[in-house]
Amino acid sequence: MTTRAETQPGQPPIVVDGLTMAYGERVIQHDLSFTVREGDIFIVMGGSGCGKSTLLRHLIGLKPPAAGRVLYRGQDFWAAGRRERDRILRRCGVLYQSGGLWSSMTLAENVALPLEEYADLAVGEVRDIVAAKLALVGLAGFGDYYPAEISGGMQRRAGLARAMALDPDVLFFDEPSAGLDPVSARRLDDLILELRDSLGATVVVVTHDLASIFAIGTNSVFLDAASHRPIAWGPPRELREHAPDATVREFLTRGGRDEADSLGRAAAKGRTSP
Q1: What is the 3-state secondary structure (H, E, C) of the chain?
Q2: Which residues are registered as beta bridge partners of 72?
Q3: What is the 3-class SS of 11-37, one letter each residue?
Q4: How far apart are CA 199 and CA 202, in angstroms?
Q5: Lowest-pLDDT range, 8-12, 32-36, 195-199, 219-223?
Q6: Given a cut of 70, is residue 112 above it in pLDDT?
Q7: How confident is the model at residue 8 (pLDDT cuts 50, 70, 90)?
Q8: If pLDDT is split at 50, 70 and 90, which confidence band does 273 have?
Q9: Edge-to-edge, what's the strand order for the sheet holding 67-72?
């Protein structure tokens, strides 16, 4: 179990070292350290107001920390120049909670945006990559649809296709199952697992959804709103049984251990394409 950021041979995808997150004088979290290893599906969890989404903003370049470091493969992101930060972020993909699609553009046009912005490709090459990414998330044939013409679950998958457009090393998900029905949420979990296994991507997921946490999480950090600090690190199932802090055990067994187990099993069953 990792409780402090580490520097390792081979440089892990992400190391957070002594991070303090604050809005002015209001500290959200302090002394936050963890390592995201190659191939992890790393869960950032905790109750409402603990700073999960704020941490994501620090990780994806939207908000600088009050103190501490975010290292991408050994490089201090916030100490780097703007051009180098942009280069790092091009190796990352983000799926926002709403999907983050432009409503005035078709799904194909949405997925093409990062390719047109950052890649020097011919029109035909862009078209082929867009078709491949949409097919990868189960949306082959939907390229001409607008976001309003498809379901919420399909919008999330289209957002994921756009996040993967530049073949990122790391994928970030912000509450991916929020607002989805249980079937759509399970399908999205299945897709996250498939992409990790087939593409070798490292995944960071901000969520409080137990089904997703137990179905896909390989490692995690628990942020505590009361103490403004992380209070547990490790695989979610291990934390459910052995976390030293009762707050973590209660969070991971809310609704009862049997219900949590059944949620995890249901989400892990039948790895079928969405």
Answers
A1: CCCCCCCCCCCCCEEEEEEEEEECCEEEEEEEEEEECCCCEEEEECCCCCCHHHHHHHHCCCCCCCEEEEEECCEECCCCCHHHHHHHHCCEEEECCCCCCCCCCCHHHHHHHHHHHHCCCCHHHHHHHHHHHHHHCCCCCCCCCCHHHCCHHHHHHHHHHHHCCCCCCEEEEECCCCCCCHHHHHHHHHHHHHHHHHHCCEEEEECCCHHHHHHHCCEEEEEECCCCEEEEECCHHHHHHHCCCHHHHHHHCCCCHHHHHHHHHHHHCCCCCC
A2: 14, 75
A3: CCCEEEEEEEEEECCEEEEEEEEEEEC
A4: 9
A5: 8-12
A6: yes
A7: very low
A8: very low
A9: 26-36, 14-23, 67-72, 75-76
Full-model pTM: 0.86
Taken as a whole, the chain contains a residue count of 274
